[in-house]
Amino acid sequence: MPPRVLVTRPAHDAAAWVDALQAHGMRAQALALMAIGPCRGEGARQALLAARATLYEDCGYRAVMFVSGNAVQHFLGATPAPLPAATRAWTPGPGTAQALLALGIPAGQIDGPPPDAPQFESETLWQRVHAQIRPGDRVLIVRGDSPATSPARVAPTAGAGRDWLAARLREAGAQVELLAVYQRELPAWDAAQRQLARQAATDGSVWLLSSSESVANLQQLMPGQSWQQARALATHERIAAQAKHMGFGYVKQCRPALEDVVASIESSP
Predict the structure, then answer these.
(1) 177: helix, coil or strand?
(2) 181 with 48: CB under 8 angstroms?
């Protein structure tokens, strides 16, 4: 019997992964290690309205980079207007591109890593889009945030993510704006979810980890739990390193694409 696979993405993102893995014969189950909600407060609302207004001005944004499907939904999902034809939509991977397509953004307006890229991330995206930028161009990076007081906040890693991309854009002469439109939070588990997590720490289940912050959340949700018998499949080297540091006894890394995840699970000892 194949091992149980725990899909740890936020609840609204996990369903498609669970269905796809089950279609490949996997015993997949969702156990969210992160909750997603809108950024709250008047300041966040005003910043969102200002960015949307700038988007539709003459000479608005040369490009809008969406760090995830959540960024797409929280920035564009509430407005029916498409992106201006002159504005490029940048994505770090196919999941975010699919979220844009679902809202009617034409495929020809979307830039991202190729489907066979070793990793879906900002560094790979930059290789595809750097020639678009001219000095003075405005670029908006739409992202998520964590509460400043959250113990699960992960320290930024040099050369990683949106900060790295923003630095490259500024070096190219662009004006960069960063807009937080959603907030990553600790999920509220019930007793059954906690019991599932305890079992999965020792019974050979595979934890499918797609975020370093989710790994930190797991440590906060299960303080004192030993992870020496736990098995993890991480979709990036930084996530794998976080899981190893936490104490997972077995950690394997693969690309965050369905076929790679399935192959990695099937080939694991």
Answers:
(1) strand
(2) yes
